[in-house]
Design brief:
By secondary structure, the chain is an alpha+beta fold. It contains 2 helices and 18 strands. The longest helix has about 40 residues. It is elongated, with a radius of gyration of 27 Å. The two termini are about 20 Å apart. It is found in: Bacterial flagellum basal body.
């Protein structure tokens, strides 16, 4: 009976974690460039149960009872890096990254993804798809959180004010007609290996170098759209349906757990008295 406790509890924990992930997706449905996660739920390996105290049985005659399911768990959160819908805003500081052909990773079977090059608050290299930017007091192009946008040369981009033009290749022309730089776009052949941080930022794992420049990767093409924002790639209706499913599954496991608890209570307090 204790095995039933473990299986039901594992199901509840799994659905709780799944609900937390779906809630985070819904909370960021209006965040530009946000990439939602998918849950990979797996079952623990089944175990074969055999009878005990079989020493008196003939040799080579095992007494298998059957298999025992040991519950489920959420193995991982897999990010979805598909393109989000573009929405026109008319703001010169809003830049949407529109992906074209992306090479497919031979190991994962999934296509690569593109990211803007930015820095975090400590000046470290980071990556984002959020193109909702602004111009700071020094004339530098920054994200809404104040992270600097980096050019293809790895330096910050000074545009002076918000009256600038961005070409489809990322080249920025200022109000005075000067070239301020070219927006850096990085290519991730295996974007699932990136680590999500707050503020829509991603980073590479420990010991990894920087992502290559997308302009230098064959078979990669893209364009930047000024005055547009990429929306979150989250289907609200599907996410709500998955949340309802997770709630119902959690409640089902909860009822099973309560039934086991009642049976255990009777076994201890009622059946035990008969002895």
């Amino acid at each position: 009976m204790l095995r039933g406790f473990y299986g039901a509890a594992a199901g509840m924990i799994t659905q709780q974690r799944r609900t937390e992930m779906l809630t985070e997706n819904m909370a960021n449905i209006n965040t530009p460039g946000y990439k939602g996660d998918h849950a990979s739920i797996r079952s623990f390996p089944e175990m074969m149960i055999s009878a005990q105290n079989t020493a008196s049985m003939p040799p080579n005659q095992a007494a298998p009872i059957g298999t025992l399911a040991t519950g489920v768990y959420m193995q991982e959160r897999t990010p979805n890096f598909t393109q989000g819908d573009l929405r026109e805003t008319g703001n010169s500081t809003d830049i949407a990254l529109l992906q074209g052909n992306m090479p497919v990773n031979e190991e994962t079977g999934r296509a690569g993804a593109l990211f803007f090059n930015v820095t975090n608050e400590n000046g470290e290299q980071r990556y984002t798809r959020n193109g909702s930017w602004t111009v700071d007091g020094d004339g530098a192009l920054v994200t809404a959180e104040g992270h600097y946008i980096l050019g293809t040369d790895g330096n910050t981009i000074n545009v002076g004010n918000e009256h600038f033009i961005v070409g489809e290749n990322g080249v920025i022309e200022t109000e005075e007609g000067m070239i301020a730089g070219q927006i850096g776009v990085a290519f991730a052949g295996n974007p699932e290996s990136l680590v999500r941080e707050g503020g829509g930022l991603y980073r590479l794992g420990e010991g990894e170098g920087e992502l290559p420049d997308a302009l230098e990767v064959e078979e990669v093409n893209f364009q930047l759209n000024q005055g547009f924002l990429e929306g979150a790639n989250i289907d609200a209706a599907q996410t709500m349906a998955e949340m309802n499913s997770a709630f119902r599954t959690f409640e089902a496991n909860q009822k099973v757990l309560q039934a086991y608890d009642q049976s255990m209570d009777k076994a201890v307090n009622e059946v035990g008295r008969l002895g």
